[in-house]
Design brief:
Layout (H helix, E strand, L loop, with lengths): L5 H17 L3 H9 L13 H9 L4 H26 L5 E5 L9 H15 L3 E4 L5 H11 L4 E6 L16 E4 L2 H11 L3 E3 L4 H15 L8 E4 L1 H16 L12 E4 L2 H14 L7
Parallel strand pairs: 1-2, 1-5, 2-3, 3-4, 5-6, 6-7
């Protein structure tokens, strides 16, 4: 039986991609990859115990190279689709928050109003594309007849795309880190409503990239002083007091209570630099 040399196959694949780039067919090729089903890393349908066992199971060299090689192509396909879809966006603001808030939640109503006001100012609205705060923000942008972008993620629960996203501005991701690249790259402001671990992940990603000068100092606005009070007190009393962060790092973000305050901070930033949304 012939043994497949995965390393050789991968090298030939990279050579093929290089030729495609030279002939200007790069985007077309990777658009096809977006719809290709990679089963090598598929863990859907497994319980937690089975997922752990699969993750730590010893693999042959060929199996490992197969997993890694095809994962690279899947990652590249998601990056290309994201760049191609979002590259023509005008100034847009990402709105983060919990997927678990219902339409009766005060935070849902806040998100909807913030998105509506931002859209009326000419900004696009980017969300994670799912329910809760994400749905509320896309809904506000949709009914303001503005640009409503959804960057959805495949999850076993919570995350189904909401119906208020522009069809030509909806992307479905498998990898969280690529999705976050799109949030950071194509947003010129971040509004963070109350949420859980995912919201904190997105918040601190933006703060860290600005702190380390990997991202332009676009405004970050946190909504609800009462919700964020405990976290901010801990940051001041532990991180700041122990010298883990600098005093000026506390200026990276603002905390407000109303939609008008949040939108004013975004708008003032643009007025300061004589920038205008171009939708």
């Amino acid at each position: 039986m012939e043994i497949v040399n995965i390393n050789s196959v991968f090298n030939k694949s990279l050579t093929f991609v290089y030729k495609i780039i030279l002939t200007n067919n790069f985007f077309a090729y990777f658009r096809v990859l977006v719809f290709f089903k990679f089963e090598f890393m598929n863990i859907d349908g497994l319980n937690e115990e089975e997922r752990i066992r699969k993750a730590i199971k010893n693999k042959t060299w060929n199996e490992q190279m197969t997993n890694d090689s095809w994962s690279v192509f899947k990652m590249m396909s998601e990056l290309v689709e994201g760049f191609e879809t979002l590259s023509k966006l005008g100034p847009s603001v990402s709105i983060f928050g919990s997927a678990r808030d219902t339409t009766s939640s005060p935070y849902y109503k806040l998100a909807e109003e913030i998105a509506y006001l931002l859209t009326k100012k000419g900004f696009g609205v980017i969300t994670g594309g799912g329910p809760g705060i994400m749905e509320a923000a896309n809904k506000g942008a949709h009914f303001a007849q503005g640009t409503s972008i959804g960057l959805n993620i495949d999850l076993p629960f919570e995350q189904a795309a909401n119906p208020f996203i522009d069809q030509d501005k909806f992307i479905n991701f498998n990898y969280f880190f690529i999705r976050k690249v799109m949030f950071m790259k194509y947003s010129q402001g971040y509004i963070v409503l109350p949420g859980g671990f995912g919201t904190l992940d997105e918040l601190f990603e933006a703060i860290t990239l600005i702190q380390t000068h990997k991202l332009v100092r676009f405004p970050i606005v946190m909504i609800s002083k009462s919700y964020w009070e405990g976290l901010l007190n801990w940051i001041k009393e532990r991180m700041l007091e122990e010298g883990k962060i600098s005093l000026e790092d506390m200026d990276i973000f603002s905390v407000v209570d109303t939609p008008e305050e949040a939108v004013e901070i975004i708008d003032n930033f643009y007025n300061k630099y004589a920038l205008r949304p171009n939708f």
